[in-house]
Amino acid sequence: MLFSTKKMDERYNNASVMQIALFSLNTAATTMFLALMEYTSYFVNGVLGFAVMFTSVILTGLRIFDGVIDPFIGFIVDRTEGKFGKFRPFMVIGNVMMASSSFVLFYASSSAPKVLRLLIFILSYMTFVVGYTFQMIVAKSGQTVMTNNPKLRPLATYFDSLFITSCFGGTSLYVSAYLIPKYGGYTNKALYTEFALFVISISAVCTVLALIGIWKKDRKEYYEAVEERKITIKDYMDVLAHNKPIRMLVTAASINKFAQMVYGNITVGVMLFGIMMQNYKMYGQIGLITAIPNLIVVTIGVAVAQRVGQKKAFTIFTWLAVVFQIVMTAVLLFGNLTEIGLTRFNGISFLFFLVYILLNGSKSVSNNIVVPMIADCSDYEVFRSGMYVPGLMGALFSFVDQVISALGTAFVGAAVALIGFRKILPQVGDPMSVKIKMVTILCYCAVPIIAWLISLFTMRYYELDQKAMAQINEDRHKKHSHRKTLHSRKSY
Q: Which of 181, 274, 316, 432 is 20 to 30 A from 15 (CA-CA)?
């Protein structure tokens, strides 16, 4: 069964389902802030008063900065080992930094004189991305100590999908159904202040629960290094040169992330739901209403991963996403989108919601299964060189992920600027036009399809399939047993 923990193989480092679920709330904590930052372009444009293209360039540069600092933070994580563990301190520090910088960003920057607004915004955003990197690297690298059981590790995909969907769906509903009617639109500073306080509170609770989840696992006995020594920059270079699986995984996942940053951009949501469908409230409602059907698809995906391995599951569900996205393209091109509604029982509504559920479920599996696959790459490195460098694995992934995905924000900004939105972004209720329709379909449909096909080609060279991971775990068990025997003899 999917969540069964009976008769767990004692050769593995096993964890309870509750521990895995609670630790996944660390991802929820960072996702809440990520959802808040989705609205940054509207804040900079509508409140601080900067032009669309200038805003896109600034945000792209800050995301690249985020990627550049990731390897340095990963290096710090790999060299950290104190009485509070390897991972827990970074979860706390990261969350505090994100909370304080978000409040300054969305409150103080707009209250300052205009000549200082950009400087305050940039400094607070830079502080935010450092905090985000601290906590998010733990979400990726902490999987290595939670469990290496191939039946349990895919469960992280299930809980990450559940919490990420809830975070984005919940915040979208909160903004569209509550904040927009209350404050009248994206040009009101008070909207962002209340939004930030809401996110800070929820994220803090999630972080505390995640700390409970990893508490018993964040100990030296679960660090799988064969050789006990301080990691150096030279070691990092060796890993980058010889760990092919992490290079392939990073490439494929980063391409997927670029697509995700494009089709998930708030501006694309405004154009699709607020202009093409003329029903922006549905943008917030649809995520929560389709959450359970979406979770059913993810449950199937996790079961597939447990049965055939994570690489195979990634491939299967990426192909399914391509197919469903093609169908969605046809719906958006030829359907009467104004007839789509949650309470409208007609053919176009049924088709749209069916495809939406299958598409988003498939995307959830392929996007989120990458996190436990990073742990596989870390296990492979222990097998290959004896080095335990989860910080590097998470940081390398995050580095390319951030740099490439930063282009997603710039891409959307450039696309809408080309059709005339140079000073202000598209707003809910703007008149429909052919240009808006084409740009929406380009961003929501065409870019993801192309990206996923490239990602599938890249994953052909990712070697850690089910058979390879079985061999790695068998080798780990033998070495662990050997070290245990030697330790017993020394004690004797």
A: 316
